[in-house]
Specification:
By secondary structure, the chain is of the alpha+beta class. 39% of the residues lie in helices and 24% in strands. α1 runs parallel beside α4 and α3 packs across α5.
């Protein structure tokens, strides 16, 4: 079995006995978006076919945003693309993107802990959250530090939704964000990266 067997977040909640709640937990953290990025994204969205498949959504809309923010945190994290995440025969598969600690052995080593899972869907947010929540459970169980809050993003490229798994409580951020409001979207993604960095710093200091 794989993450794709979970077609709704309710499937994950019931199978793993996680509590579900909703609330706006993200405090936006402004990010300085380069002009070249704005111009390139506008051109791609205006002239390109950006949402005809999940691969197109990843390449044209999701990864560019994540990568631009990740550059500021690359000394501590690796942003993995379609890397295998396997806990057991039920919790296994290939999330679109995973933010993980940079290994002291080098960038080619997929190291714990795992902080952020990203799932791309063509407007199938219910299914997307089923898979993403399952991926978050797998990351939580694989982490050698169970106290880590694992974050999740589900996006169709235009609309971005956020959630977090803290212990046995999953919280879905109530407010969605859109790529047309780029400054706000970047501020939210940057805030998630800051939370991940703060957690990593705490683990290192412990």
């Amino acid at each position: 079995m794989s993450f794709s067997k979970y077609t709704s977040i309710a499937d994950v909640i019931q199978e793993f006995q996680i509590s579900y709640t909703e609330g706006n937990f993200i405090v936006e953290s402004p990010f300085d978006i380069p002009d070249y990025f704005r111009e390139d994204l506008q051109m791609v969205m205006r002239e390109g076919v950006v949402n005809n498949s999940e691969f197109a959504i990843c390449e044209n809309l999701i990864y560019p945003v994540l990568k631009q923010v990740w550059k500021c945190y690359s000394s501590k994290f690796i942003l993995w693309s379609h890397e295998s995440l396997n806990y057991d025969e039920t919790l296994s598969g290939f999330p679109e993107y995973i933010l993980a600690k940079r290994s002291p052995l080098g960038k080619v080593v997929f190291d714990q802990p795992y902080f952020l899972l990203v799932e791309a869907k063509q407007d199938k947010f219910k299914e997307g959250w089923g898979q993403c929540a399952a991926e978050m459970v797998a990351a939580q169980r694989l982490n050698q530090y169970p106290q880590i809050t694992v974050f999740g993003i589900v996006s169709n490229g235009q609309v971005w939704q956020f959630g977090k798994l803290e212990g046995n409580v999953f919280t879905k951020h109530t407010t969605p964000y859109i790529i047309e409001n780029l400054d706000q979207l970047f501020a939210v993604v940057n805030s998630i990266f800051q939370h991940c960095e703060a957690q990593l710093d705490t683990l290192v200091a412990a």
